[in-house]
Amino acid sequence: MVSAPSGAGKTTLCRELLARRPDLRFAVSYATRKPRAGEVDGVDYVFVDEEEFQRMVEAGDFAEWARVHGNLYGTPRRALEEMLRAGYDVIHDIDVQGARQMRDFYGEAVYVFVLPPSMEALAERLSGRGTDPESVVRERLRRALEEVREYALYDYVIVNDVLEKAVGELESVILARRLRVEDLDPAWVEENFFRQEE
Ligand code: ADP
Ligand code: 5GP
User: Fold this and answer.
1) Cys staple from 66: which of 43, 50, 96, 97, with CB 3.0 to 4.6 Å?
2) Average pLDDT taken over every residue of the chain
3) What are the tens digits of pLDDT across the range 145-177?
4) What separation in Å is there between the alpha carbon of 151 and the centre of ligand 1?
5) What is the C-alpha separation between 136 and 49, in angstroms, rounded?
6) Ligand 2, closest atom to CA 101?
C-alpha cells in the first residue's frame, strides 16, 4: 500500500516500478473525479459518477473507500483479492484514511509513505504537473500537512527526491517483504533440511 501527499510523486514512482517488474500488479481504484489529460479509464482509475459509486458502496463492493479532496475513491474488493489469490504482489495507491481502514483487513500488507523532499518541492511539483487549477493546488498543499502528520501509521517512508533512487527503495521494500520468515513454508524446511537425516 503506497500513500503520499498529492504531488509527492507516488503515481510516477509506481508507474516506473511496474514498468520494470512484470511480477507486480497495480490495483486500479474507482474514482468520481474527472480524468486528467492522459489518464485512461480502467488503467489509472475506473472513473464513475457519484451515483454509481454510492451504489457500489451499498453493495459492499469496496474493501475501503474515502472522500479525498472532495472526490470519492475506493478499492474494488474482488479485483484486489483476485490478484492476490493469483499470487501477484499488488501495489495499491490509497490515501491516509484508506490506509487506516485497510490495516484492519489486510494486516499482512506493507504500508509505504512517500514524502516529497520539502513543502517547497511539493508546491513546485503540484504546479509543475499542470493538471490542477491554483485553488486545487492550494487545497492539496493544506491537506498535505495533515497527511504528513500521520506518517507513523506506515511501516516505511521513502523520500522521493531523486526518482531513480526512490524507485529502487520501493522495489527493495517489496523484495524484503517477500523474505519475511512468517511466509516461509515449514514443510519446505522439513523437506530440504531434515528429511535426509532420518
Ligand atoms: P502523486 O501521484 O503523488 O500525486 P505524481 O506522480 O503525479 O504525484 O507527481 C507529481 C509531479 O511531480 C509530476 O509532474 C511528476 O513528473 C513530478 N515528479 C515525480 N517524482 C519526481 C522527482 N523525484 N523529482 C522531480 N519531479 C518529480
Ligand atoms: P489523485 O486524484 O491525485 O489521483 O489522488 C488523490 C488521492 O486519492 C491520493 O491521496 C490517492 O492516494 C488517493 N486514492 C487513490 N485511490 C484511492 C483509493 O482507492 N482509496 C483511497 N482511500 N484513496 C485513494
Assistant:
1) 97
2) 93
3) 999 999 999 999 999 999 999 999 999 999 999
4) 19
5) 20
6) 22
